[in-house]
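User: I'm writing a short report section on ligand binding and want a predicted complex to refer to. Could you take this sequence and 6-O-phosphono-beta-D-fructofuranose and write out the structure as C-alpha cells? A short remark afterwards would be nice.
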Amino acid sequence: MNPHQYIETFTKLQIHHTKISQLHMRQLFERDANRFAIFSLQAPHIFLDYAKNRIVPDTLQLLLKFAENINLSEHIEALFSGKHVNVTEHKPALHTALRDPNDAPLYIDGINIKDNIRDALGMMRYFVSELHKGLWKGYNGEAVKDVIHLGIGGSHLGPMMGVQALGHVFHSKWQGKCHFVSGLDATELDELLKDLNPNTTLFIIASKTFTTQETLINAQRARKWISDAASGKDITNHFVGITAQIENAVSWGIPKSHIFPLWDWVGGRYSLWSSMGLPIAIMIGMDQFQALLAGATDMDEHFRHTAFAENMPVILALLSFWYIVFFKSSAHAVLPYDHRLRALPHYLQQLSMESNGKSVQCNGTSVNMPTAPVLFGGKGTEGQHSFYQLLLQGTHLIPCDFIATLRHHGPETKQPLLLSHCLAQSRALMLGKTKQEVIASLLKQGYTEKNAKKCAPHRVIIGNQPSNTLIISTLTPQTLGALIALYEHKTFVEGILWSINSFDQYGVELGKELAEDIKQRLIENDETLKFDASTEGLLAYCKQHSY
Ligand code: F6P
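Assistant: Sure. The C-alpha cells for the complex follow:
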C-alpha cells in the first residue's frame, strides 16, 4: 500500500462526503433515472440493488480507488492461497479450501490439506449413510432417532442456521430429528431431554478446542443422562466429536473413529463447510451438503475473479465502510424476508462482530477510525412491529440489508404480500414522508388545518435511511452457500479496509477468566479473592438472598 495514495484517496473521500452528505436520496433519484441500472449487479445466485444508498457515481469511483490503493487484490489472493492472513496467530484462514472442488494440492506445513478435507467429507458421508439406514444403534440395539448437537458460537450458529434454513425442505429420507443446545443454563438441555429417549439419542460434542466450558458441561450432563439409563451397557455409540483437538476428545471418552476432524487453519465462525456442518449433512443428506459447498464456491469464484466495480462482496464492504467511517454510523441491520433465514442475523452477528469488533490494526497500533458496527436484525415482517420505528423515525443512521426470496417452499410458493412489505420498507426508509405530505394526508382524513399542522411534526419521516436489497430466486443449498460466502467475503474486505485481523478473538478470553474467580467465591466461598465494590456488593446480595 502506498501511504501517499492512501491518504490522497481517503482525503478525497472526506471532501466528497462533505459535498454530498446533505443530499437526500429523493434528489439523487430525481437527478438520475438510471440509478437502478447503475447501482445493481448480479452475482451467482444473488441479485443486489444498492441504488437506495447515499452515493453518486463519483462516490463509488473513489471507494473503488481506495480499494485498489490498499492492494485488495493481493489480500484476496493471500486469503485463497493459504497465506498467514491471521497475522496474530500466524495461521491461514482457509474456509474457502473446505468447499473448493478443485483437486490441485494446497500444502499447509507440508501437508496437502485437500487430502484431509476429502477424508473428512468421506467420513461424514459414511456416518450420515449409517445413520440414515438405521445402522447406527444405541445401547439397546435400536437405531438413533434424535441427534443433539452440543456446541456454542461458531460450533453452533452455522450448523443451527443451516438446518433451520434447509432441513425442512431438503429433508433427507431419514425420519430422525436434529436438536441444538448451546447454553450453560441446565434448563436448555433438561427441557429437551424430557421428551427424548436415551437409547435412541446421539450427541455430537462440537468444539474446535474441546475446552469450551459450556459445551463440556453439557457433554457431562448428556453422558450422565445416557449412562444412568443404560445401566452399564456400552454407550460408545451415543457420542461423536467434532474438534481440532483429537486428543482432548479421546481423553474425554470418544473413540478416534467417532471424531470428525477440524483444523487450525479454519476459524470457528467460518467452519460450517467442514465437519462442523455435520448436522446439516444429517438433515439434508451429503449430496445436498455438497450443493451447499458448491454454492459457496460459485461466490468464491465471483469474489476472486470479478472486477471490484461488479464484485458483490467488495461493493457491500465499501458501502459499509462509507457509512461507518464517513457518516459515523454504528449499527447495521440484516432483515431477511424468509422464515427459513430467521437465524441469519444471529449467525452474521458472530461472523461480523467477532471478526471485526477490533480496535487494533495488524501492525499493533490503534485503529484511527470506527470499525465493525453493531449488527442486529430479524425476519420480516416481524421487525416492522418492533424495531423498525427506530429505523424510520429514530436519530441513527442504520444501513439495512433486505434479503428476499422470490419463491418460497411450501403451499404458497409466491408470497406477493411478503415481498411487497420487503420492497415497501426499503422504499419507506429512503423516501420518508415530508411535512407537506403529512399535512396533506391528514387534511384528507378530515383533520382541520390547525390540527393537521399540530400533529404533523410527530408523523414526519425524514427518510434518507440507506439500504441494500438482495434477491434470491429460492432458498436452496446452493443459494444459501452463496449467501453465506458473500457475507464471509464482505467481512474479509472490511477487515482489510480497516487493516485489522478478522480472524482472532482475544477479547472473549477476559470474561472467561474473571468468571473463574467469581465462581470460586460463589461455590468455594474463597474470601481471598477481592473484587470491585459493585461485584462485591452483588456477591453479598446473592449471599444475603440465600444463594
Ligand atoms: O467466542 C469465542 C469462541 O472461541 C468462538 O470463536 C468459537 O466459535 C466459540 O468460542 C466456540 O469455540 P469451540 O469451537 O472451541 O468450542
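A remark for your report: The chain has a mean pLDDT of 97. The longest helix spans residues 477-498.
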